[in-house]
């Protein structure tokens, strides 16, 4: 089986500035949940935008399921951007129908059941919900597709800590286990129990690519503790 994501010598420079991403070599296989972790400005969103064909590499290549970013990758990648892109004036039930019309792989049943589990009123307009609840809706819509690769850029920043675990488990118990999820987040301790692998990125370079089990057994540390040590200011 082809890797779901392969980056070879991938670099990105915005204008004449320094590299935002430099010579990244990375292969991700199917069926894993991966944390993309790094300090502010380290290049996480740049990598995510490159994978989603929103930026063009300065050097190097990206293959998604063996193909360059384009029509095929848009069909198999479900992407949650780091800012809201949904029309706030729409009712939640209409957003669900809109996604169902737009994406062949969207499961209305799955979306409706997760919205119910999280007590979200589907007759409400998105903009009338709190920030955290708007984030939950956006995440549910993205996770209700039957994608091969889910890319979540800061998915639960506005969600209260008590609800985070519940949301992560509700959402993750509803996705296809052969798919891969790449999550960029600063909420490491909240999320590390669901991660199989972590990528640490610093100044645009990949400085660690390891399984969470290896970090715990070899370094005898949590991912959160290791992150704080590596990126100490
Ligand atoms: N549109 C842009 N034009 C110029 N430079 C940019 C642009 N977008 C990002 N950069 C720069 O690229 C570098 C990487 O930024 P990026 O947004 O990828 O980091 P990040 O790891 O996602 O950060 P954060 O955790 O703060 O969201 C930073 O130095 C940033 O200033």
Automatic annotation (TrEMBL):
GO terms for molecular function: ATP binding; ATP hydrolysis activity. InterPro entries: AAA+_ATPase, ABC_transporter-like_ATP-bd, ABC_Transporter_VariousFunc, P-loop_NTPase. This is ABC transporter ATP-binding protein. Pfam families: ABC_tran. It comes from the Bacteria. Gene3D superfamilies: P-loop containing nucleotide triphosphate hydrolases (3.40.50.300). Residues 5-228 form the ABC transporter domain. Keywords: ATP-binding, Nucleotide-binding, Transport. Coiled coil: none annotated.
